[in-house]
Amino acid sequence: MERLRLRLATSSSSSYTPIPAPFAERQQSRVMLQFGAYTNANRVENASRLEGMPASLEAVGSRLARAGVLDATPDSCCVNLYERGQWIPPHRDNPKFERPFATVSLRSAQRVAFENGSRRVSIVLGVGSALRVGGEAADAWLHSVPPVLDARISLTFRRLSAPTREKFRAIDTASAERKAAKAIRKREARQAKRLAKLEASDVKKQSSRSAPLDLVAAEKKASNGYVPEVEIEHVWRVYDAIAPQWHGTRYKAWPRVAAFAKEVGVVGAVVADIGCGNAKNARAICQGGATCVACDVSRPLLEIAARETKGLAYECLDADATRLPWRSGVFDAALSIAVLHHVSTLCRRRAMVRETFRVLRVEGRALFYAWAYEQREFEARSGHRFESADVLVPFHFRRHGEYYDPDASAVPDHAKVDEAKNALVLQRYCHVFREDELANLVLDAAGTPVRIDAAYYDQGNWAVAATKLAS
Ligand SMILES: O=C(O)CCC(=O)C(=O)O
Ligand SMILES: [Fe+2]
């Protein structure tokens, strides 16, 4: 008996209930091993482990159902282990179990008593017998086990009632759903954490580089080497933003530039227009039959240039004048008109001059124009007065009129609104040249012997025309 009790008690799906101390003292109750659902102080326990019955007990339960002792296959079994003298007071079986239920008696025969008011009925349960209890016997009558005469085992088979079973199934489903939802939340939280970590490391990576203002700028930076932030923000992005308005007000070549272009732009000549902007010099260059290859860093200006030069032998491409994408010695002439003053370091201005002469053939001619520090007010239409050599010059980007496109590309971060003028004020960076500075730069930085053909003041700019003397 003890061995059996231990064996069953260690079965994982069982509940072993020893007799509580006060009950044990009076020998009330018995050791119980319960499989499947059972009740404990009127609460159903283990309802979701209905499959928990050992195969041997299940076989007995099925046989009871087949024999018609039970109406359906039981899903729980309580094994009662009685020592001699142990007993159970009158009670009613928990209504959360279906009727009928059945008790199989083993080991020793035992009398059980039924009572209903003053009525009493006793039944002797023989070894191997099955007692079916249902109807009034189960609910109107109480039953009890008087002190057993000998050690005894009984097996009571029950089936959880349909509503209770349904209730527990719903609870089970809900708890499974809660569990699943919790698992999903946990997984999502983990993913969010991982993502945040990735993003943080990305931001770190980005901020450890000198942050590019936009992708185009970043791309240019990568392909052209270092471009100071001031040029990207205050030259490149400004021209990108103002391109249509810029084009609208500057569409004619300056006369002395046009004269130079005409001189060099003969049939068969190949001319470079470096920093071409909206290509206002294109006609002057190409009208004599020359072919022109132009470049600029502003895509919006290049788009205008391409549009404006349809039908001309004029090609324009996106390139930085400090790193020209052409072979050395291929051009007969080069124009660098109002470009040098937008380059913010001496090193880059020197690079631009050197590159211009590199792509020229020997005897090739170049014309440079750069904004003058010394503005001769009576000559200069701009009327600027500069305080120093490196300045920010405001450009009023009108938010109205025929050259305003509200859908045009983004304005630079530094733009300020001027409500009175209904304009955005953009600041263009300029390095303004002092007298002789441009000529000295050309002589110094050409990287090859050059001859200065002319140096003069025109349109508020210093101008230098020079010829490459050797390769
Ligand atoms: O052992 C028996 O015969 C009856 C047991 C019983 O009534 C019970 O477990 O509720
Ligand atoms: Fe009972």
Automatic annotation (TrEMBL):
Q: Which GO terms describe its biological process?
A: tRNA methylation; tRNA wobble uridine modification
Organism of origin: Chrysophaeum taylorii
The protein's matches in SUPFAM superfamilies, at most eight in alphabetical order, are given as:
Clavaminate synthase-like, S-adenosyl-L-methionine-dependent methyltransferases
Under Gene Ontology molecular function, one entry of this record is: tRNA binding
Query: Mind telling me what this protein is named?
Result: Fe2OG dioxygenase domain-containing protein
Instruction: Extract one GO cellular component term from the record.
Output: cytoplasm
Q: Does the keyword RNA-binding apply?
A: yes
InterPro entries linked: AlkB-like, AlkB-like_sf, AlkB_tRNA_MeTrf/Diox, Methyltransf_11, Oxoglu/Fe-dep_dioxygenase_dom, SAM-dependent_MTases_sf
